[in-house]
């Protein structure tokens, strides 16, 4: 214990200059933020006109961009035009510094590029819970966090320009894909990949190729044939110091098939300044059909996910984040295979909303057309020595309100669709930087007051992970 405390103090001392630098940067940003709020609102029509008239030289020669060539820029421009050409948008707004456009459901990329003529029917909300487990903690001593049922605070339904952030019926809020964002990456494929080096793999199967950056994990896993899983994720927003080469930090679940080809459906929160442009953790989804090779993208940035409910902002920030020793926030996320589609549910332990689905067709003839084979839960970061914090930035052993957690972990077995508590194995590839505590049993009193199977995770990152 003493060595752990000493390491935490050392890590905190190492990171103190970075934290202070971040605070000064934030303090200095307020006048800039006020100035930004005074700029002209960019309507969807103006955005499209700007995209049509944009020239590669303005982006390739900009020292703040990474787009590698005029040809790479033109690929990006054509992608944006392909996504939006013919889309009819009557309402747009700003959230977290990003534009969102209210896009008709059948005009979003997943529907248009998938050739959908109608939106699939959602599954019934699952009403079955895992059976009672005897023994262990009955849950009475565990805290009840604050569930995130909306990414908007009560006073955030109107943006700074006076535009409603509530999309009208039949439309969904789609985070605007801009050339400014795409040009922060060398190529369009780099933009689609889960990390800049393209080295992402399933954590328990990771073999890293030579690379300037690397993925680090703290996670739990279970090999089991299933048709989906449920995970309630503690919500944090750890600071990612891009000036030191840190790239992103996230917490998520992976729903995976790995033979004969690796395929995934993923959901969680992520702080990725290089993608989103600021330090706020975002709700994200991701998928791949071929082991992160030529397929996969975040959120709604390619023709994959089909969103059907406008109450959640995929790629958008949250109104509240957990604080060390203070209020704890969480949201429930689940994937569930229904009539050939992987449905995403978001909400709280007392109830979820079906937000949308990955059509089974995006997985081709692969294993996820019928079921998944592996479940994983935990955190991931990318850096190049140093690495950013994961979770809250505290080691898992610090427990409630200091370490991050994931709880209420269960799955539906295949082919019977029975709800079963997870039986997880722990993996800590970088224990000096990131750890797992648990899994534990936290009691069961459905539908709300229980922790079920849970664990703590995270750590400060730093050097030598």
UniProtKB/TrEMBL annotation:
<dbReference type="InterPro" id="IPR004314">
    <property type="entry name" value="Neprosin"/>
</dbReference>
<dbReference type="Pfam" id="PF03080">
    <property type="entry name" value="Neprosin"/>
</dbReference>
<keyword id="KW-0732">Signal</keyword>
<feature type="domain" description="Neprosin PEP catalytic">
    <location>
        <begin position="207"/>
        <end position="465"/>
    </location>
</feature>
<dbReference type="InterPro" id="IPR053168">
    <property type="entry name" value="Glutamic_endopeptidase"/>
</dbReference>
<feature type="signal peptide">
    <location>
        <begin position="1"/>
        <end position="36"/>
    </location>
</feature>
<protein>
    <submittedName>
        <fullName>DUF239 domain-containing protein</fullName>
    </submittedName>
</protein>
